[in-house]
Every structure is written in C-alpha cells, then in structure tokens.
Amino acid sequence: MSAPKAMTMDRVDETKQIIIAQSTSQCCRAGICQPSLNWVIQEADNFDGGNPHNQPSVAWIHEESSWFMRCCLPPCRETKYVQHTSPIPAAVKKEEDYNWCRIQCDKTPKGLTEEDRNKDVLVTHEKPLTCGMNCCCCLPRITTKDANGNVIGKTQFVCDGCCFVPKYDISDANGQKKYRLRPDTCCAGICIQCRCGGGKGKCCRVPYIIRDPTTYEALKGNAGQENAQVTQLWAGWKNECCTKRDVFHVVFPDNATAEEKLVLTGSAILMDVLQVEQQQDGGDS
Fold it and tell me: What is the pTM of this model?
C-alpha cells in the first residue's frame, strides 16, 4: 500500500473529511507535568482506537505554549499550533509514546529540531491569552494564518443568552462570517440535544453542526451524504483511560474552500482546548 499523499493546499481543497487525533500521550498528566499537545491528521471518516502513530497520516500539528499556562489555566493559555504537510518526525513520535510525568519547560515539543519545526509549514492556528468559555469578556478565539503570516480566517467563541450551549462563529480573512458551529438543541434552544447511535465512534456523542451563519440551517458535507460537522469521537479504551488522547472527526461543507477547511481544522482544536482540556483538568475558567 502506498503512503498517503501529503496534505498540501491542493490536497486540502480535494478533501471532504478528516480525522484529527492527538498524538501526545498524556499519562500522568497533572500539575506541572503538562506536555505540548500535538496532533496528526488522517484522511478518514473514523478512528479505530490505538496509537495514532500506527495509522497513516497526511499531516501533523505541533503546539508551542508555555508550560505555566498549560498547567494552570489550560483554556486561557496563549498558544500556537503549527500545521505541517510533512509526516511527524520520528524523534517526536518516540518522545510522545514514552511521555511519563515529564516536565516540559520550553515551548516546543521534546525531540523537535529547529529544522523540523520550520519544515513544510502550511498554516498556523494562533490563540491569544483569553478568558475561558465561562466568561463573557475577552472571549476565546483562534486565528488561522498561512505560512507567510497572512490571516485566512478566525474561529470565535460566542457568548449569548443561551449560555449552556457552546457555539462558535467562523469568519474569513475580511471578518465576514462564513459558518456558525453549534450542536442541535432542545428546550427552546437552551440545552444541548444529545445523540445516541450513529456508529463510527459517535454513540452518545454531541456533533457540532456547521451551519449557515444567518439562518443557522445545517450545511451538508461528504457530497451531501451527511451534515457538515465537528464531532469528538470515542478514541478507544487505552486513549480514553490512559493516554487521554482526544480525537475529532471533521466533515467539511461541500462548498468550502481550502482556506475555510483549514480554519475549521483550527475550530476543532479550539473546541478541544476549551471544552475537553477544561474538563480533564477540572478547571472552570
């Protein structure tokens, strides 16, 4: 079987859906033992559990963030995620698989050389220092930039009257809203509507549907076969209980541009920072 093609801009334009899986093992993650949380991207519709390094990937993302903010206020931290079109370096793989109670004092992942840090960069996803999702000031956001530092879009957490339903606005480089990312709701829109069934790791999961920014109607993806969405998947027993690696399935809207798909990849990362990491660390920021 041939290796998957690197996810360059042309390949992003052709891609209908991806799996974005955390590759960093988080065993014994507590206090100051907080490693950078890196990701691999697979062109797939499901994650079969196990070590993501053992599954073919088309890109990887490394995090650059202060250890202090990662261990104290993870959803508030200033951080940058660098998305590469090249495979994850072997030295980083090794460090991630044997990451036990390590104190990471610098911003870059262990094992990452300066050459690999700047190699084959496609975009960066940059989050400034903000409040968490439970405050209605200095709201969390993540900005996606191309390799030259030009903004191509932004994901902004939304605070409104329905405070129990997390939601995000996705805009382009000019600030024009392109999508609203929100789960289905019940009780007149004030509560999240959970879904049971659906297969592919989605049983009792909450799909965040990608919607029209004005009407909030669900958009279709995967050639009209399902709703465009960002959904956290069941990552397998070992990942859920031991390594604590998170996994998301992103189905892009059928008419999305390559730039919009990259911005939506950043949206999945922001959701993880605000909603999953906050729960794992017991935070309420």
Answer: 0.91
